[in-house]
Specification:
Number of domains: 2
Helix content: 40-55%
Strand order of the largest sheet: 3-4-2-5
Strand content: 15-25%
CATH class of the largest domain: Alpha Beta
Number of strands: 6
CATH superfamily of the largest domain: Sporulation related repeat
Number of helices: 3
CATH topology of the largest domain: Alpha-Beta Plaits
Oligomer: single chain
Distance between the termini: 72 Å
Shape: rod-shaped
Order of helices and strands: HEEHEEHEE
Length: about 120
């Protein structure tokens, strides 16, 4: 009987040691993965934003005029001209979420009926 109790006690201690070691190894692996992810994010400084495109065409003067008018009406907003061969685009905003860009789009829909939401990768 004593041998059986002693055997069970030894098994319990060994099992506890194995579980503690496994837990430490798992935590070390998780810590390593988190560090690796942080390094990857530091190296890749890519940010994603939504924009609203209010003009798309080949006339740079028209794009500049629309940009001036837009900034006069919406001075708190960001806007810029982007050139993608062979057309100029006027993009507004720098929205982090789809909800933000949808709200802004509702406000601009009457002024710019051909406006559309764009989601490029910006470095």
């Amino acid at each position: 009987m004593f041998k059986r109790i002693l055997f069970m006690l030894i098994l319990a201690v060994m099992a506890q040691g194995i579980l503690a070691q496994t837990s430490r190894q798992t935590q070390q692996r998780l810590d390593g993965l988190l560090e690796q992810k942080a390094r990857c994010l530091e190296q890749n400084r890519t940010k994603f934003f939504y924009y609203i495109q209010i003009y798309n065409g080949k006339d740079v003067n028209r794009a500049r005029q629309l940009l001036r008018v837009y900034l006069a009406r919406h001075p708190e907003s960001k806007a810029f001209i982007k050139w993608e061969n062979p057309e100029y685009k006027v993009w507004t905003g720098e929205y982090m979420s789809i909800l933000d860009v949808e709200k802004a789009m509702q406000l601009l829909r009457d002024e710019y009926p051909n406006a559309l939401i764009v989601y490029p990768r910006v470095h």
